[in-house]
Amino acid sequence: MTAALFRACPVCDNPNLAETGMMVPGGPVLRCGRCTHLMAGCPEELFANANDKWDSSEGTMPDKRSERRHVAHISRILKGAAGALAAEPAALRLLDVGCSSGSVLKVARDLGFAVKGVEPAAQAAAAACSSGFDVFRGVLQDAHYEDGQFDLVTLFEVIEHLRNPKELLLEIRRILRPGGVLVVSTGNVDSWTRACQKERWQFFDIYKLGGHVSFFSLTSMRHIARETGFEVVRIATKNVRIREREQTSLVVFRLLRLLDELLNQPSRWMNRGHDMLVTLRVPARVASGKAN
Hints:
Rossmann fold
């Protein structure tokens, strides 16, 4: 058995981690008592192999049935980010970190953004490059982009895969211009979905979702933003799922989906949805470097 993946909280560096009593695929869920962050108590060896799931030429490209929904969803987010920057997409330089095979890059390019990507998975990066995108194959820290090179960085469903998310966010802050924006999407451990499903919440599954080990609450997200020198512009959540289809009978699932729909709007108002979207900004007075 290899060493435990986390010896301290990856958000606030607190070494005192407590077990939550939840046992998920890969091991126990640990909690930081200081910032409420949850993390997987899995061994390093399991984590090292889990992300291989996404190394394919398809990557995270949506299938034909969900393509229209994907385009509409990403377009809304990117247009909102352009609004936060008070600029038209054609005037903005965007970097998608963890771009996979280029599904977000394609939407961004079609909107007019000047786009680049970063992707560590070789086959997915090659597929994005073959579609004409400028993609660095590796981790962001090895790309050596210039200080302040980008106006907008997107981090869709990536931060939950990271052993050291602060290191990545500090590098993103360095390459964003003063006033630049970072958009992060991840799961919300404070959601009603997680409260109902407990350890059966799919977001906890290191195998099914390919390497999820770090689980943010609104509190821990705000904490890591402060630690890395970002201002929080907005945190929004949406969607409730009391049960997944495989967790119950078809009849019960359909009845619960009706309840899900009733709870979706209240979950937005109360920030209890399971999908979290975070908009962070580099303070205009700070050009680059580490947080103070």
